[in-house]
Amino acid sequence: MASGFKYDLVPPVETEERYDVQTGIRRRGPFKLVTTNLVEGSHLPSFVPIYADLKNKFAYPVRNVKVIEAYASGVAIKVAKNSLAYAGMFIGNGSKGAKVASIDKSNKAYDVLTTESAFGEAVVKGAVLFEAAAVDGLKQKYVANSALYERTKVENGIVLVALLRTAAEIEPDKLVMPFSTNDKENLKGWFEFNE
Fold first, then answer.
1. Whole domain around residue 110: which residue ranges?
2. Is the domain of 81 the same as that of 120?
3. Rounded Cα distance, 108 and 93, in Å
4. Mean pLDDT by 10-residue block, N- to C-terminus, for the chain (195 residues)?
5. Which pTM value belongs to this model?
6. Are 57 and 73 in a shared domain?
């Protein structure tokens, strides 16, 4: 080791198996990760839901948020930490929606999405809201057809990633990023969730 240098950075190791890795089949070739509204220097954990543009080889992160406390009214929705939500995005559940005005990440247990107006209906604890194409929340912007194969650092410039096409015995409670009902329906036959 060179004199004067001390290396004390230990890379985090993801040891928890989120799916039966023997059943994982990757898509051919690397895909270019679309990093718009992702924080440079942050890491995407493995098995993040991804919409893969198979023709042009782009990978779009599917931004879903898990509600951790039942929502009845108002403009504050408590969601699980480490979501990919950002201010200005639309969230929805297929029948109602709202625009995210800001995100408060100060609490260690959850994040608070503040919307520009009330969501419009009650949301149960554990529900998954998706990034919507419009403020009405009717249509999901990107529906997953893949999952991120390995932990990936978001960097400035081109970020190439490997994607999973098939996986079985997926443990939804162990996933850092949830899959919406639309995602699971689209992945049926290729991805098997234990629920």
1. 64-132
2. yes
3. 26
4. 64 72 93 96 94 97 97 95 95 96 95 95 96 97 97 94 96 93 96 93
5. 0.88
6. no
